[in-house]
Amino acid sequence: MRTALPLFFICCLFWACQPAQKLDLNLQSPDGHINLNFDPDAFQYTVKKNQKAIMAPSQLGLIFKEEIANGPYQLINSTKNNHQEKWQPVWGQFDEFEDHHNEMILNLENAQGFKMNVIFRAFNDGLAFRYQIPAQKTKTSLHLIDELTTFALAKEDTVWWTEGNANTYERPYQKTLTTALDSANTPITIEGENGLIVLHEAALVDYSDMRLKNVGNNTYKAHLCPWPDGTLVKTQSPMQSPWRTIILADDLNGLVASSMILNLNEPSKIKDTSWIHPFKYIGIWWGMHTGYYTWTEGERHGANTKNAKAYIDFAAKHNIEGVLFEGWNKGWENWGKGNFFDFVTPYDDFDFEEVADYAQKKNVQLIGHHETGGNIPMYEQKLDTALKQLVHFDMHALKTGYAGGIIPEGQPKHGQFMVRHYLEVVKKGAENKIMINAHEPIKPTGLERTYPNMMTREGARGMEYNGWSKKITPEHTTVLPFTRIIAGPMDYTPGIFNITYDGQKQRWHPKDTFAITRVNTTLAKQMALWVVLYSPQQMASDLIENYEGHPCFKFFQDLPSKWNESRVIDGKIGDFAVIGRRHENDWYVGAITDEHPRKLKVELDFLEKDKKYRAVIYGDGPETDYDKNPKAYQIKTIDDLSSADRLELDLCKSGGSAIQIIPL
Q1: Beta strand 279-283 with 322-324: parallel, antiparallel or unpaired?
Q2: What is the pLDDT of residue 459?
Q3: Of 4, 105, 228, 572, which residue is 20 to 30 A from 268 by alpha carbon distance?
C-alpha cells in the first residue's frame, strides 16, 4: 500500500476550495495517449499512458522561509490552452522541431493574498510542470527551503542512473531496479513493459540543480543543491522554477527524437545567429592526458608556436574548421595559488599574434581555452578582458573548464550560484559572438535553444578518463546516447587511433598507476562514436601524427557537422547502439557494442525508395582483436544498395563500425 508524505508538510501548504470540484483538472496530450490528472484535495498529480499508470499520486509544492509565501493555498481557477508550431534550430540533430502541447494553468492564492501558479504541459512525448510566483502587490524576497515535488513510479522497473552529486556528473552509470536507486543526478532513464521514461528538468535558470532522492515506496523526491547556508534557492517575486520533465517514449528512437526539453525553453534571444554554426575540431588536448605534452611551459609543452602551426596546417588540409590549444596561457605552474590565471598572457613559446595570423591565412578557426580551476571571482573579474582578446584575434569559439573545487569555498558546482555563473558566461559569449563549450559544466536543460551559442559540454565521464584510469568500460558509451545525451549534446572527444598509446604515454596524473596503456575499444568503435555521441562541435581528439596518412581518417574528413535528421536504427541500453544521421542526401551510421562481440543486421529502410546507394564501411576486420590487435580494421565498399537491403556487421568485443552511405 502506497503511503503519502507526512501530512504536516502537505496541509501547511495547500487546501482546495469548493469551486475546485467544478473545474476540469485533467490534461491530455494532443494525440490523447498521455493523461494527467490533478487532485486538488491532496495537491497531487497522476500520469497514465495508454490507460496504464505511469505515475502514482505524486506530490507538488514549495516551502519558503517567508511565511507569507506558504500555505494553506486555495485553488482559485484553472485555464487551458493549446499550442502548435514548427520551428527551426540554428543547429541540432534535426533541422526542424514541432512544439505541440496542451497546457493547464492552476491559479492559487493563500490567506495573505500571495499568489502562486502551477503550469502543466502535455506533449505527445511526455509531460512537464513548473511552479510560478507571479508579480505580487509588493516585490518579495524569497528563500526556498524545500521543494516537495515527487515522482511516484507506478511500477518497479529497471533504471540507468549516476550517483547524485553536487559537484560532478562524472560518476559511472549503474543499472538497478528503480527501488534500489539512492540519490541520482538527472537525467535518469527507466525502461520497462510500458516503454521508456526519462526524468529530468528543462530551462534551468537562476535556480538550483535538481537531483532525485529515493524516499521509499518507489518514489523519488526533488533534491535541490543548496547554498552553503542551506537555502535551496534565493530569489524574489516574480520567479519561476525550471520545468520538471517526464519524457515518455515507446522505443529508443522515440526517446532520442523527443524535442520536449527544447520545446520547454524560450526561442533564441540572439537575433543574428549567422556566426553560430557546428564544426569539427582537433587539438593537443589528448597529449596532456597521456602525458605526452604538458600544460606548463617546458620541453614537452604542447601549446607552442611551431606545434600550433603544424596543427593548423593539418586542419586546413583535412577539412577541419577548428583547432584548440590548451595550456597556451601562463599560470598553469601556479595552479591553485590565488589568481593564477589572467587568461590573456601567453607562455613565451606561444606567439598568440603569429599563431592567430597564421590561422586566418589558412582559414582555420582558433578555439580559445579558459581553464578557471574553479576560481569564479578570478574568472569573472577578468572575463570581459579575456573575451575581448578573442574578439581581437577574430576567434568565435571558446572552451571553458572548471576542474577542482569552487571558490568561494563551500559553493557546490551545481548550486544556484554556479547556475548563474555558467549562464552569465554564455550571455557574455553571445555579446561577443563567441560559441561556448563548457567542461565541468552545469548539466544541459535545453537552453541551447534560447542561447544557441551554448554549443556543447562535458557533463559525464568522458574520453579523458582513458588517459589515466580504467574507468571507461566498453559498456559506458552504449549507455550515454540514451541517458546523458537525452538532456543535450556532449563533448565526449572521441577518435583515438593509437589505442595502446605506443610511444606516446608518460605518467602525469596522480591517479595514474601507469598500468593503463590503452583505450578500451577497437579503432573502428572510436570512429563510430563520432556519429553515435552527438555534439555540434565534434573533436578528433588524437594527436595528428596518428591521423596523418591513415585511411580511416577520411571518414572524419567527410563527416558533416550539421544534420537534417537523426534516428536510432537499433539498440539496447548498455549493450549496443546503431544510430544514423542524415546530411542532405547522405547518411552516416555508427554502430557500437559493449564487452560482447556482436553480429548486427542493419535494415536500410530509412533510405529513400527507388534510389541506389554506395556504403563505405570502416569496421572491425578479420584481424581485429580487442586484446591483441585493437587497431586493426577493414574498409569495404558495397554498391547498388537500396532501402530494401540490410548491412551485416560483425563487431568485435568493444568494437564498432562507421558507415558512410551516399547516393549513386
Answers
A1: parallel
A2: 98
A3: 105
d(C-alpha 457, C-alpha 535), whole Å: 8
417-445: string of b/e by CB count within 10 Å (b at 16+)? bbbebbbebbbbbbebbbbbbbbbbbbbb
Q: Which residue has the cell 573502428?
A: 524
3-state secondary structure (DSSP) of residue 281: strand
Measure CA 627 to chain center: 31
CA distance 414 to 417: 8
One-character DSSP codes across 110-144: ETT--EEEEEEEEETTEEEEEEEE---SS--EEEE
Positions of the chain with pLDDT under 70: 1-21, 511-516
Q: Which residues pair with 77 in a beta bridge?
A: 107
Residue 420: φ, ψ to 5°: -60, -45
Cell of 650: 560483425
Q: Are the C-beta atoms of 455 and 435 separated by less than 8 Å?
A: yes
- Read off the C-alpha cell for 153: 513510479
Q: pTM of this prediction?
A: 0.96
Q: How many CB atoms lie within 10 A of CB 648?
A: 8
Q: Is 464 a catalytic residue?
A: yes
Question: Residue 487: CB partners within 8 Å, gap ≥ 6?
Answer: 186, 187, 200, 261, 443, 444, 445, 446, 459
Q: Is 636 left (phi over 0), alpha (psi -120 to 50) or beta?
A: beta
Write the DSSP symbol of residue 164.
-
Q: Which domains occur in the chain, in start order?
A: 7-263 (2.70.98.10), 587-663 (2.60.40.1180)
Phi-psi region of 514 (alpha: psi -120 to 50; beta: other; left: phi over 0): left
Q: What is the dihedral sign for C-alpha 424, 428, 430, 434?
A: negative
What is the largest distance, in Å, between two alpha-carbon atoms of the chain? 78
State residue 16's pLDDT score: 44
Q: Cβ distance 655 to 522 under 8 Å?
A: yes
Bridge-based pairing state of the strands 141-147 and 150-152: unpaired
Alpha-carbon distance 222 to 151, whole Å?
Answer: 8
Element (H, E) at 280: strand 279-283
Helix (H/G/I), strand (E/B), else coil: 312? helix
Cell 484535495 locates to 41
Cβ neighbours of residue 454 under 8 Å, at least 6 residues apart?
426, 429, 436, 438, 447, 448
| Cα–Cα distance measured from residue 639 to residue 615, given in angstroms and rounded to the nearest whole number | 6
Q: Closest by alpha carbon to 569, among 541, 592, 536?
A: 592
The one-letter code for the residue type at 438 is: A
Amino acid (1-letter code) at residue 337: K
Tens of pLDDT, residue by residue over 227-267, are 999 999 999 999 999 999 999 999 999 999 999 999 999 99
As given in the structure block, the three cell numbers for residue 312 are: 593548423
How many angstroms separate the first and last alpha carbons of the chain?
A: 62
Report how far residue 664's alpha carbon sits from residue 660's, in angstroms, rounded to the nearest whole number: 12
Which residues on adjacent β-strands are paired with residue 196? Answer: 191, 249
* From 170, 321, 326, 464, active-site residue: 464
What is the helix (H) or strand (E) element at residue 369, kind and residue range? strand 365-371
Distance CA(308)–CA(284), nearest Å, equals 9
Three-class secondary structure of residue 55 per DSSP: strand
Q: Up-side HSE of residue 507: CA atoms within 13 Å toward CB?
A: 7
Q: Is 561 helix (H, G, I), strand (E, B) or coil?
A: coil
Question: What cell numbers appear for 378 in the block?
Answer: 578570478
Within 10 A of 42 (CB to CB), how many other CB atoms are there? Answer: 17
Q: What pLDDT, in 10s, does the model give residues 134-153?
A: 999 888 899 999 999 999 99
Those residues with Cβ within 8 angstroms of residue 65's Cβ, 6 or more apart along the chain or in another chain: 142, 143, 144, 145, 231
